[in-house]
Amino acid sequence: MRAAYARTDYEAGGAVAHIGRRSAGMDALLRRHGARHAAFVTAWNPYSHPMPRGWNDRMLARLREAARGRVLAEGWGRGKGWAERHLLLAGDPRWIARLGRRFRQHAVVAVAPRRPARIILGLSTPRATTGTDARTRRDEGAGGPPPLAARTW
């Protein structure tokens, strides 16, 4: 999984970040917003389970609400043969990682001025339920991802 993240382009606000590399464009974007820390996070395709575009867009809208005004920019993560929309959120990457966990993601990508982008893996932890709030559980009943125990990797 780490290799897939490393091959992905993380774009937001016209700047592109890559795992393990610094980005002058990302530095400028963060400076423009006065952000000392930020991270890319998505709500698309929870736990890498492909979902319909409409479902993904609804979950991204809920992530935007949960971000409480910390969205610096919206963008895309693009890898070989796939793409997902994401948000670049200002704030402590640990807080953003909790949002990633809430929206059932494996990882977030943290950025900071003059530092290489880094991946924060290990957000997904087995739980008895797949939903973490009433709205997410309701959507799972209408074509959401299967329970963790039912997934094969």
Key features?
single chain; 153 residues; alpha+beta; seven-stranded antiparallel beta sheet; 5 helices; 7 strands; globular; disordered C terminus
* Distance separating the two termini: 11 Å
What is the total domain count?
1
Assess the beta-strand content as a share of residues: 15-25%
Helix content: 25-40%
Using the alpha-carbon principal axes, give the shape. globular
In the predicted model, the low-confidence regions spanning at least 5 consecutive residues are 128-153
| Secondary structure: number of strands | 7
Structural class: alpha+beta
Radius of gyration: 15 Å
Q: What's the structural blueprint in terms of helices and strands?
A:
Layout: H1 2-6, E1 9-12, E2 15-17, H2 24-33, E3 38-41, H3 53-66, E4 71-79, E5 82-90, H4 93-102, E6 107-111, E7 118-121, H5 134-140
Antiparallel strand pairs: 1-2, 1-4, 3-5, 3-6, 4-5, 6-7
